[in-house]
Write a structure and sequence with these properties.
Structural class: alpha+beta
Number of domains: 1
Number of strands: 10
Helix content: 25-40%
Largest sheet: 8 strands, antiparallel
CATH topology: Yope Regulator, Chain: A
Length: about 170
Amino acid sequence: MFDTTITRLTLDNLREIIQTAGYRVETVTDPVTSAKYLRSATNGLAFDIQPGNRFIDAGDEFLDVAFLAVLQVQGELPLDLVNHWNATRRFARLQLSHPFLVLSLDLSVAGGVAPNHLRAQVEIWDHLVQQLIAYLRTELPKVTAANANNTPLASHAADLQQAPSSPTAAVTVQ
């Protein structure tokens, strides 16, 4: 790992950091853009780690990355669920870009960070993904119950399934 302050990332050293945190990580190439990124998973939910801003003087080094977990939404998902998540959580944001529900966290090494800071960010990401799974399992049945009782949420029943671009766990509401 690193002994000094980290001011630049590469996919290789980021993969090493994530593996040191206990994750399996693979390098993936986007078939459309030919861009390389990392893919991993936690508790059955796959996520991607995509490089952000690259340094002009070095094509394979970058300043920040985005952690992304994508679920596919079938039907309508109440924006109140997304907004409540965002209002009650820090560090990551949940976004509904129909037909996808995306959890994202930005990680930057601008100004330099210690290796344990990156490790802590990976751990925060893991906790947030776990919280999202629990949150959806708790909140989506409420939408179904509202639907059965013909309340205003009745038109918002949703099925969340694996997104076609990345393997993820399925969360389903009947």
